[in-house]
Structures are given as C-alpha cells and as structure tokens.
Design goal:
There is one protein chain. This protein is α+β, with helices and mostly antiparallel strands and 153 residues long. Among the domains are: 3-56; 60-104, Roll (SH3 type barrels), CATH 2.30.30. It has four helices and five strands, in the order H-H-H-E-E-E-E-E-H. A five-stranded antiparallel β-sheet has the order 4-3-2-1-5. Strand 3 (82-87) and strand 4 form a beta hairpin.
C-alpha cells in the first residue's frame, strides 16, 4: 500500500482489503502527527512558560524589571502575587501583579556579564595555547637547525 491510499477515507477499500477505514496505517499516521505536534508546539511553549514563572518567582527587592506594558522600575516590595515598584526620578510607586512582569533586567545583565566573562576567558585560554604552540615550534626549529649544523659532510 502506498501513502496516498492510506490517507484516503476509503483507502483500504480501494486497495482491495475490504476495510472501510484506513486500517492500522491511518492510526499510526494520526499518532505520529499528534506526537510531532506535541514536540514542535506544545512542549516548547510549556518550557517557556516554566522559565517565565521561575523568573517571576525569583524576583527580589532591588531588581530592575520591565512590565508587559513597558514600564520600567525598581522592586521595592515583594508579596505573594504582587509587587510594588518605583519608577522615574520622582520615585512614583506602583503596585503590579507578578504575571505582568516581562523581564528581570538585573538578572539579564548578570547573565550577560557572566557570558562575556566566559567568552573573554576562552579567548585568553586560546591565545595562551597559540603562544605555547608558537614557542614549541620555535624550539623545534632551533633543534633541527643545530642537528643540521652538526652533520656536515
């Protein structure tokens, strides 16, 4: 049986096996499609929601945050389901719910600083290895040059 005859509503009957449904092939295809949808759409969305909830649960006093409305402020008070932030130079205070937090700018800055430090450390290590290899290469050239000088015919 080919793929098209399995997908047709009367695919089994057209193939001559007397079944009005697609048979086990149709069920396998439906299960495969559902599995694909789960791994391509549902699972990544749940993972993202979990990360956002973790970020909102880990907000501390003093963190700079941005709300989903674009308001930026510093956290003054943390309660179970709400925050009080102060914004602007005149330090206006606002009470917002935790679900309205879009980003924790302080945590993002810390993560970016850690990434930058790791990048710089990797570059320094790479540079040190390159210098070491160059030194070894120089030493080898000197040894071979001395050997060539001693064996004059």
């Amino acid at each position: 049986m080919d793929f098209i005859s399995l997908m047709l509503p009367t695919g089994g009957a057209a193939a001559g096996n007397g079944s009005a449904t697609g048979g086990p092939g149709m069920i396998i295809m439906l299960v495969a499609m559902m599995g694909l949808m789960y791994f391509m759409m549902i699972r990544p969305q749940k993972k993202k929601q979990k990360e956002e909830q973790n970020m909102r649960d880990n907000i501390q006093i003093g963190d700079e945050i941005t709300t989903i409305g674009g308001i930026m402020g510093r956290v003054v008070t943390v309660k179970e389901d709400s925050l009080i932030i102060e914004t602007g130079a005149d330090r206006n205070k606002m009470k917002i719910t935790k679900w309205a937090v879009s980003a924790n700018n302080t945590a993002n800055e810390k993560a970016e600083a850690e990434r930058q430090a790791a990048r710089e450390a990797a570059e320094a290590e790479k540079k040190a290895k390159m210098e070491e290899a160059a030194d070894k290469s120089k030493a080898r050239r000197k040894k071979t040059k001395k050997k060539d000088d001693t064996f004059d015919f």
